[in-house]
Amino acid sequence: MLNFRLVALAVAIAAAAAISWLLLNPAEPIATPPPVTEPAPIAEPPASQQPPEADIPERAPVAEPLPPLPALDASDDWLREQSNALVAANRQPQLAQWLTSGDLLRRASAYLDGLARGALLSNIFPLSPPSDRFISHTSNGALWMNAGNYERYNATVGVISALDAEQLVALFDRARPLLMAAFSELGYTQRQMDGVVLAALDQILATPVIVEPIELTRESVAFRYADPQLESLSRLQKQLLRSGPDNTRQLQKLAAELRQRLLAETP
After folding, report:
1. Is there a domain that residue 199 lies in?
2. Among 260, 193, 200, 225, which Cα is nearest to 2's?
3. Strands across the sheet with 215-219, in order?
4. Are strands 37-39 and 136-139 parallel, antiparallel or unpaired?
5. What gap in Å lies between CA 10 and CA 131, rounded to an integer?
6. Domain count of the chain?
7. CB contact at 8 A, 179 and 193
């Protein structure tokens, strides 16, 4: 997943209630189906003619003077070093594993641009897949998403939700000139960059939290959501649904705090 990790780094789902519900309503046994994919993502939404615009306040650094920033082309090692302050020591190895790619800030800008539109650009930032395969079950003649799927995302969401929002925003403030340089290569202004960052968080915050079992349909080898409203959600939001309500709430809590801190006038 997570497809959500870079949201946290640049600015960025075990659900007990749902599992309990399913345990009280056991599924009918069914024959093991052939391998299938997870609920199929919808086509990538077309980019709007103009990206969203916003103004994230520029905050003065707490400690001065700070050493000069590296050039964008030489910023990977600097960003990896700065990321150590984002999580506790026991989480740092996993975070470091996510930052092994090159051109991290250029990837961040493109990834955030996708997230702001509800897209997950895994080819830009390949992320380790969730453990095990997607599981469904039938009950009373209907096809349902198994709540056990939620646990597949727990490890990833655990690291993301452990990120220190205050340190994350401080890193955003510090790296802002480098991010702006990366976004400018996409043709974006600073107000458009700020709009993209906030729109990416808003995509997460606008995702519905579904605690009830989710009904599916199956077309060929792909699962789809039976509820047209759920099926019409963005790819990012549908990924959050697959992560479960508890994990979705954790990510939304972080997104809300990041949004609040980003828009604050002072650190």
Report:
1. yes
2. 200
3. 37-39, 222-225, 215-219, 142-145, 136-139
4. unpaired
5. 25
6. 1
7. yes
